[in-house]
């Protein structure tokens, strides 16, 4: 069965510093990988996806993610954090099954 | 607004009552999904439709839950004889199948319907 793990429940970063939110996945074949962000009282918003091709994927709001097949990781990154990036971030994977399987989420707090 | 709409946004009910949630997906999207999210957890898959056909149901979807998408457009999720453990945010999402365009395979979520069972 497909699964993802987000090892950090909470990540704190100073404004202007680079940020990383970690995600590892488990599938038996080739994965489709996604990052979503959730703000309070709002639905999940799509940030970026990896399907195939270039291992570095660029997405919305200056975020990017690097697919690493040998480490089965898909970490979310941003070079310079903004206070407005504070939110709940979810990694998700899709394999043969049609549904997305989500991680438990990482709460990102950017400290002014 | 061409996003995914869910109604109601909030529902408070007493244990044992039935509730129904409605989802209106993006009109061009042929797939519709229902997820459930509890506090501190990621969304958990419940079921999905391709057009009007319900193609997969999670084991989380007990006999008290039923979902329909009668004309391949809007969908309803009904919970009968609600229990306190049903309290959660119910999320609807839609997507378009295919390849070669940026939105392929991307789920667009609605804001959710929050259920509180007293």
Main attributes?
heterodimer; A: six-stranded mixed β-sheet; four-stranded antiparallel β-sheet; B: 118 residues; mainly beta; 47% strand; globular
Notes on the protein architecture:
The complex is a heterodimer of chains A (112) and B (118). Chain A is an all-beta fold and 112 residues long. Chain A is built from no helices and 12 strands. In chain A, strands 2, 5, 6, 10, 11 and 12 form a 6-stranded mixed sheet that branches. The radius of gyration of chain A is 13 Å and the shape is globular. The mean pLDDT of chain A is 93. Chain B is mainly beta and 118 residues long. In chain B, the strands form 2 sheets. In chain B, strands 2, 4, 5, 6, 9, 10 and 11 form a 7-stranded mixed sheet that branches. A 4-stranded antiparallel sheet of chain B has the order 1-3-8-7, with no helix packed on it. Chain A binds chain B through residues 32, 34, 36, 41-46, 49, 51, 90, 92, 94, 97-105, and chain B through 4, 31, 33, 40-45, 48, 55-56, 91, 93, 105-112.
Could you write a compact summary of the structure shown?
Chain A has strands spanning 3-5, 10-14, 19-21, 24-26, 32-38, 44-50, 56-58, 64-68, 73-78, 87-94, 101-102, 106-111.
Number of helices of chain B: 0
Oligomeric composition of the shown chains: heterodimer
Shape, per Cα inertia axes of chain A = globular
Distance separating the two termini of chain A? 41 Å
Helix percent band of chain A: under 10%
Which H/E pattern describes the elements of chain A?
EEEEEEEEEEEE
Fraction of residues in β-strands of chain A = over 45%
Please count the helical segments of chain A. 0
